Structure formats: structure tokens, C-alpha cells
Amino acid sequence: PGSLLHWTRKMIEIRQRHPVFGVGSYVELSASNPSVLAFTREITEDESPWGEMDAVLCVSNLSRFPQPVELDLRRFEGYSPVECMGGVQFPAIGELPYLLTLPGHGFYWFQLIPPDDELEPALAASAKAL
């Protein structure tokens, strides 16, 4: 589970599960820390080959040192970020800036689950498999 091969296979699986990475819109977010790059990729039901809306939040630390960042995610208020690699659900997004701490050269990919949706069964199953 800790090998580069396992990690690469997991990244490919995530990419295949989320077509938004290839065809979704790209919106860069204002981050409170210049060492952190944050953006969303979104796809509407009409644009999706599967007919489903999808939104992913990507946050990357460009520094070799751990970095905190505050993100203005009010547009996604009520959404629940679910980390794509391990399926861990983070606290719901509210009105206040969303605070994250990233390890050196670390990153997060979050699927943004709308407030009226439950955790997707496929996502829950992949989290249990880890």
C-alpha cells in the first residue's frame, strides 16, 4: 500500500472516476498564502459524459515546508469536502474562510458533495477498501 506503484494506480483510478479533471471548467481561488495553489474543476450535468454534476477542489503546497491556508469557499457553503485519495470526509464548508494545513509539497483533492446528497456509494466503498 505504501509503494509508488500503488499510489500511481490510485491516482489513475481517481482521474478515471472524475471526468471533471479532463473536461471541467478551471477556476483559480484566492489563497491567503502565496505558497499554496488552489482551484476548482467543475462540470455540469449537461457537460458530463455520465450526466452527473461533479466538482473537485484541488489545493497544492508549492513549498517544501508545511503551510496553512485560508480559502474563500462561500460559493460552496453547505458542501462537504471528501478527500479523493482516502475517502475521508472533512468538515462542511460554511461562511467563514476554510482553513487547511498542508505538508511540504503536499496536496489535497476534494470531491465537493452538495448538501442534499449523501456520500456516494462508490466513494464510500473505495474508502473502506483502503
UniProtKB/TrEMBL annotation:
Output the Gene3D superfamilies linked to this UniProt entry.
Golgi alpha-mannosidase II (2.60.40.1180)
* Pfam families given in the database record: Malt_amylase_C
InterPro entries in the cross-refs: Glyco_hydro_b (IPR013780), Malt_amylase-like_C (IPR032091)
Q: Where is the Maltogenic amylase-like C-terminal domain?
A: 29-109
Source taxon at top rank: Bacteria
Task: Output this protein's name.
Answer: Trehalose synthase
What is the taxonomic lineage of the source species? Bacteria, Bacillati, Actinomycetota, Actinomycetes, Streptosporangiales
